[in-house]
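Input sequence (720 aa), recorded before submission:
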Amino acid sequence: MDSTPSPSSSSPFEQVSSALGRYIPRGAEEAAAGPAEARSDRGTRRRAPGDPAADRHDQILGVVNLDRDLRITRCNLDAPVFAGLDAAAGIPFADLLPPGDVPTVTRRLRQVLEIGEAHVARIQRLRRGDGSELVVSMSILPAAAPQEGLTVSLIAMARRLHLYAAETAIGTSLDIAETAQSLAESLLAWGEVAAVDLDFAVWTGEGVTEQAQGRIRLRRAALVPDRAWPEGYVLPGNDLPSDASRLLAQAVRRDDAPQAIVIPDREAVERVLGSPRVIRAMVPGDRSASVACIPLVLVGARPVVLGVAEVWRRADRPFRDSELFDLQELVARTAHHVDLARQHQREHTQVLALQRRLLPRTGGATIEIASVYQPATPDSAGVGGDWVNSFPLPDGRTALVVGDVVGHGLGAAATMGQLSMEARALLSAGLAPDEVLEHLDETVSLLDDAESGLAAGYSALGSTCCIALYDPVGHDVTLSSAGHLPPVLVLPNGHAGPLAVRPHPGLGAEFALREPFDVHTFDAPPGSLLALYTDGLVEDPALLIDEGIGRLADAVSTVHPWDALQQAARHVVSTLAPARQRDDVTLLLARMIGHRKGDTATWRLPARDDAPARARAHVSALLRQWRTSNDTRDDATLLVSELVTNAVRCARGPITVRLIRGGQGLLCEVGDTGNGRPRLSRGGLLDDGGRGLHIVHKLTTRWGVRWTDTGKVVWAQVGR
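Predicted structure, token format:
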């Protein structure tokens, strides 16, 4: 390193360097020595960062000069606190930085080079040659003309600054591993190796109780520095040996109170750990002989240990009381961040489990289903309210539902689950998509009242939903949307694009904005592919939303009819989803199969007294052609006769009879123009009304009613 230059120079490097004498104590002999003597004597007069002599000075100043390639040209880091920094001339300044900080600091250095404005007092970590770290306040100054380059001044504040910087860094993430890693990196300033081991219950999000401390199970959460470790040593993600977990738990809970412990030398470490297997798992290497174990304690009526932090040193650097106090202070400040991450993990796990449960499982004989749910990145506010579902309806159709509930976390998850289950129940009861959305709209408004909604800090107003019903006989899709992005349909001829759905406000809109939900019907012949999705898949700050939907249409159109649908869905998501998601991504692909033409038959009959007889004749002839059993044929013929008789009595206009042959049996449908709902009643022995429905109930495995624009359809299923 260069010696202190003449104070007469006006460059920033020389001005800062000339001021070092006011901050670094030097004896008379050293002041009289020349530069060469000062450099040769540095190895004997420098002290370790933890040396008592260094602790007498809260503020230590150093300076480094860089060229335009950000390489070191000169430096003056004579203060003992900078011992171990390999700042030789010619090396890149980035070599002094932790790898994760290199991009940010490099960008800041180049910005000062280009603009010429100083960047003052950045809290920054520097790496020593042995892997330990030093926290400094770093200022970047442009070099004075005619020189080029930068001057970087470093102020090392050994205690307070490091604690402040560490606490600031540790509280920036709700991810357990990231929080533990930040703590370990901060602890490295006190030793050569730092590790953080957390109770397994913290990882799962469960509550860590005081009663469970005796059987604590520790899993390594973080380990620094990043280097090759001895065989058998516990690495992040692995559980500690049960003996080691038990010993650590007992050690930090001496006298039934959590407290830090120090094992001063290698002999004592081996005596405490006992078996060679545990020693290999816990001791990071031959150089590490002294260890401080500090419990992460959740303060409460009964203190609870969340885990243990370990800092390892060489035997020639014993832990002093002041250092142990600093370590305890830092770990204590971190414990509540670890608990917050645990709570976030529990909520994340619960919401994710609910969301996975709502995902469609399989399709059926008439439709093939595949779905992908991809939660947002861990640094988001939590799992979002995306939900998608598909399920067969009792009348043979298939419901496809996708929604996006406003917000994240348990509030959004609760609303998501309620809306999903309500939509399924109403669709199964035979309501049309627009009617279901009307009910969901009212539900969202009720959930947002003063007691259960806004007072609880969560509002679902503006949530979106799209409901599509696929008819495998008519080969069409009927859908309604509440503020949701339009589905994308790919026809067998390869034409792909979003369906023309008129925009509608989201659920729970103001009364003045409410309009009847539109019902749209689109042809979906066999081989068609329908994509329902949430906005996280197509939204990109650099693109218009229509361009994002167009990209989705292009991606879905490349799916070949022979491609495995689940694999195709994953490929579409991986192609379109941004690398760093801000929102959950959900995609549902439905490949239409439908019924074969020979498996269905439809007849239109006038509403006359002879309609039941004509219906019996048509059905009996068709079932003989289908070669059904005599029992099934008799049951189906009687069933259709009773339903047609009921339609003639209660309705006007033509009657439609439809028979569908499927894998689960025969589905008989009778449609009319009436709006009365058939109900099963407890009539007397001599009552004529309602006897037909009792016969229907006896003959079928299930039956029900669905409503149409012109009336209703009564359907019933019989076994084959």
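Checked by second reader. The chain has a mean pLDDT of 77.
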